[in-house]
Amino acid sequence: IHAYFQMLKDFLEENDIPWENLYNVDEKGVQLGRGCKNSQIRYFFVKFDAMMYRQKSDSLKLVTIVDCVCADGTAEIPPCFVFPGQGRFDEWSQVDDYILYV
For residues 81 and 99, what is the distance between their CA atoms, to the nearest angstrom? Predict the structure, then answer.
């Protein structure tokens, strides 16, 4: 790890790139349906039956959360939420000046 960061430091110094111009972007997907069946219906099947019951969520929609942090420790770019579909529902989250919707 030390060798990697030494190479990175040398590269940034050789090319006159300040740390405030180096960013890390990360994303995380969150499944709205949590992957569980909401109806609570139970199914019975024969032990040797090849067709087994599989649980499925009623909602498989994903919300993606994107964040960006600068190498100098600042986070000038606010987090971003990417919702599926053509519009968004206001009840999904609280809106303030620091949250972006895409």
Answer: 8
Q: Is 87 helix (H, G, I), strand (E, B) or coil?
A: coil
Q: Where are the domains of the chain?
A: 20-101
CB burial of 4-35 (b: ≥16 within 10 Å; e: otherwise) equals eeeeeeeeeeeeeeeeeeeeeeeeeeeeeeee
Return the structure tokens found at 28: 């995380």
| 8 Å CB contact between 31 and 62 | yes
Q: pLDDT digits over 40-82, tens only?
A: 665 555 566 545 555 555 567 788 888 888 888 887 777 877 8
Strands 62-70 and 23-31: antiparallel
Q: In 3D, which of 38, 43, 65 has the Cα closest to residue 54? A: 43
0.85 surpassed by pTM: no
Element (H, E) at 5: helix 2-14
